[in-house]
UniProtKB/TrEMBL annotation:
SUPFAM superfamilies: Macro domain-like
Lineage: superkingdom: Bacteria
Name of this chain's protein: O-acetyl-ADP-ribose deacetylase
Pfam families: Macro
Protein source organism: Streptomyces monashensis
PROSITE patterns cross-referenced by the UniProt entry: MACRO (PS51154)
InterPro entries: Macro_dom (IPR002589), Macro_dom-like (IPR043472)
Residues in Macro domain copies: 1-169
Lineage: Bacteria, Bacillati, Actinomycetota, Actinomycetes, Kitasatosporales
Signal peptide bounds: none
Length: 169
């Protein structure tokens, strides 16, 4: 049984087997969580991301998929990069967001990770409404078979923490 926990704070300060990065499809860094992970983790992460772009993901990592790299200087063994969907009021992209969590757990299982720290994927510049993102994240993790022992949702602010806390109820 996987334990779900909540932490308010900076995901780059977490100690876990794997830290999930809300990446953009280029895998080459960006803003928000992505930029913070690349800055704190150092150049080793970007180096592996460039190698992935040169080989398996020439056109970038597709939305809803996940891939792992080293964690560089982070207090983790791996970073699992996943590309969340941009929110659209006119098109239901919920399955793509759920896929980010399922695929990240699949990669974590392949790696043998037992603790995984997730951000609130797609809730920053991709504008996914926090309450809905929390519902999708918690339901998906609860309903995904995994050997991961602890999934830790690391939420940056009070609003995100409270939305996830309501879902864990």
């Amino acid at each position: 049984m996987t334990t779900l926990t909540l932490v308010q704070g900076d995901i780059t300060r977490q100690s876990a087997d794997a830290i999930v990065n809300a990446a953009n499809s280029s895998l080459l860094g960006g803003g928000g969580v992505d930029g913070a992970i690349h800055r704190r983790g150092g150049p080793a992460i970007l180096e592996e991301c460039r190698a992935l772009r040169a080989s398996r993901y020439r056109n970038g990592l597709p939305t809803g998929r996940a891939v792992a790299t080293t964690a560089g200087a982070l207090d983790a063994r791996w970073v699992i990069h996943t590309v969340g969907p941009v929110y659209s009021a006119g098109e239901d992209r919920s399955e793509l967001l759920a896929s980010c969590y399922r695929e990240s757990l699949r990669v974590a299982d392949e790696l043998g990770a037992r603790t995984v720290a997730f951000p609130a994927v797609s809730t920053g510049v991709y504008r996914w409404p926090m309450e809905d993102a929390a519902r999708i994240a918690v339901e998906t993790v609860r309903n995904t078979a995994t050997a991961v022992e602890e999934v830790r949702f690391v939420l940056f602010d009070d609003r995100a923490y409270e939305a996830f806390a309501r879902q864990l109820g």
